Amino acid sequence: MAKPTILITRALPEAVEARAARDYDVRHLPGPDVTASAAAILEHAAGCDGVLCAAGDGFTAETFARLPDSVRIVATFSVGTDHLALDAARARGIAVTNTPDVLSVATAEIAMMLILMCARRAGESERLLRARQWEGWAPTQLMGVTLEGKRLGVLGMGRIGQVLARMARGFGMRVHYRNRTRLPPGEEMGATYHGDDDGFLASCDVLSMHIPGGEATKHWLNAQRIARLPAGAIVVNTGRGTTVDDAALCDALRSGHLRAAGLDVFAGEPRIFEGYYDAPNVTPLPHLGSATVETRDAMGFRCLENLDAVLLRSAEPPHRVA
Ligand code: DGY
Fold this sequence. Notes:
CATH topology of the largest domain: Rossmann fold
Distance between the termini: 28 Å
Radius of gyration: 21 Å
Structural class: alpha/beta
Bound molecules: (2R)-2,3-dihydroxypropanoic acid
Number of strands: 12
Number of domains: 2
CATH class of the largest domain: Alpha Beta
Largest sheet: 7 strands, parallel
Low-confidence stretches: none
CATH superfamily of the largest domain: NAD(P)-binding Rossmann-like Domain
Mean pLDDT: 98
Number of helices: 13
CATH architecture of the largest domain: 3-Layer(aba) Sandwich
C-alpha cells in the first residue's frame, strides 16, 4: 500500500525525521528553516494527507479554508495552538492535534532559570565580565534578592505551572496561584488559590505567566495590573508574548516599580519590543521553553502518534484540539 504523504514545515530532530520517513512520503518546505507562511503552506500542501507544522506557522482561517481536500490532519509541534484557526479547521473537518505534557518540565525549568537570573542579576553580571569591566569583588556589587521565603504567583496552574510550583518549593518559595478553576485540595500542595486578580497580584513577589495566547488574553498584564504588583516584583513569561503590554512593562521596569523581567516569548517573534534591547533588568531568551533534546524528540513523536492514528489507522488522534 502506498504511504500517505505529509508536509513537514520545519526541520525536525533527526530521530523524528527518520521515523517520519519510515512511515510516510515526506515533503519539506524548500528554503530556510523559518516560520512557514500561509502562501508556502498552501503551495506545498497539494496532494498531502497531513501536515506537521510548528508554533507560529501561518494556519489562519483562510489557510484552512484553502487547504486541499486531501488534508485530513494538521499536527502541530507545540502545545500552544494560537497560530491555528481552530474553528476554521473544524468547519473543514480537519483534525488538529498538539503536544501536551511532554514539554512541561523543560518549560518549567526555563521559567525557574529566568526567575533565578532575574533575582540574582545573572544577565547584567555576565555582560559586565564579557565587557572586561569587572574590577573585583565588592560588598555592594550587583546585589540581588533571595528567593527563599518569597511568594511565587503562578498565573495559569496547568501542567507547566504545577511543575514550576514544585521546583519553587525546593527553593523555599511560597506558592500562590490564579487559575480558571481551583485545583482539587490534594493537588494544591499548600499553594494559595486566588479567585480574583487584585488579591493574586498583590501576593506576587515573583509573577510567572503560563497562559495561552489569543484575543482573550491579549495584554493581560497591562499597566493597571502591573500597578497592583508589589514594588520590586519580578515578572517572568514563558507562555505567549501577546499576553503582555510591552510598553507598560518597559515603563514599570524603567521606573523601578518592577525589579526585573525574564521573557522567553514575545509578540511578533522573532522581532522583540524595541525597549527590551536596552533595558538592563530584562533577561530575554529566544523562545527556549521546550528546547531540550529529550523534549523536542518527545514532541516530534507525539505529532507522529497523532498522524499515525488518523492516516495509518483511521482512528481518533490522542491529542486532538479541534
Ligand atoms: C509550544 O509548544 O507552544 C512552545 O511555545 C513551542 O515550544
